[in-house]
Amino acid sequence: MSHAISVTNHPALAPENVTLKREMISTRAMAMMGVGAVCGVVAIIMGTAMGMQKQAIMGYLVGTMICMGLSLGGLFWTLVFMMFDSGWTAMIKRPFENLANMLPFAFGLFLVFYFIEFLSGGIVCSFRVESYTTGDALFEHKSAYFSVAFVLARLVIYAMIWGWLLMKVVRPSFEQDRTGDKWITAKQRFHASYGLLLFGFSVAFFSFDWLKAVADYRFFSTMWGVYFFAGCAFSSVAFVTFALTRIKSLGLLKQGAASDEHFHDLAKLMFAFTVFWAYIAYSQYFLIWYSNIPEETSFFLFRKQSWPVLTATLVIGHFLVPWYILLWRPVRRNMNVLALVAIYMLLMHVLDIYWILRPAVDQGLDAEIAYGGMHIITDIVSILAPLGLYVGWYIMNQMAARPVVALHDPRIGEALAHKNYV
Question: Over 90: is that where the pLDDT of 12 sits?
């Protein structure tokens, strides 16, 4: 692989420029994990003592699915960067690898929900709550797929696929930092070639199981896996963009490491997946509206009628606002503005997952019961519980565990010399 510039003793790769010391970020990490722990305790208290157990558990699932989406998005971008051999990404790929390496932690958070849900006999999952009492012919047709044994078997398969990809594509990059072996990159590219296919199928079925079927097992959508994937890619780019801006604010990544050129490209990816998410969301809605099948339309009708403000917010806030802001080249090259845009996009992703899952708890309830009392506080703290733990663990045990740049990637010279002309 050719180098655009020499990287021997390049100041951008000096240890003090690419290594976060734990004392620089330990306070932030502990604060985030503290927020997560406190919110978890409050959610448990409100769920048990105030009779809002379903809201608390569903809120926890919302937060956990956001964490899973971030890590799966990190894995996706790592696979893509390796598969397409994109040289400019060598300078900014490490935060994505760190996100992917958080998959075991995120999966652990998810297993907490799994055991609560299934050991209790079903609290919030639609295919567990109603399946044995309604005599629904549609459920009887799907009952084998939703059996506990098969659901658990699929979880094991997902974990095996993602674990394999972590070992073959993500973690070799960390080994390359230690050994300097340039051929590791070629091996990663080989595994990324079939890894993207495995990733696509596993993420699609995982989203069927734990978003679509949880919210309403009667709901059909052949585009659902792509919809969830779009959110994963969307949120992970925003998360990494914000993380890199915070690292630079600590005085690191100077001398061309994570320059305006790299932020410009990250902004273009943010823009691209803003449009892609909107395209998939609209196409899914249009096809369901056009076919007018009750099992499909009921999902959207309930959310439009009972949650109209949130539905409109997603249409405008998840697409139109970031789309317009990111159109402007000066915005795409301004680190501080991009940090604000990234936070905003992450908030919209949280609202998107919330919109998918949370209304399922309120189906069959009148508005006063659904929205009254302390429900919104329960939602907030139960979502923040896994998110706080996840972000705190990411800061302490990923960002500070290794250099924030892949030092021995053979494309690092090309990345340092990267320029944008669009």
Answer: no
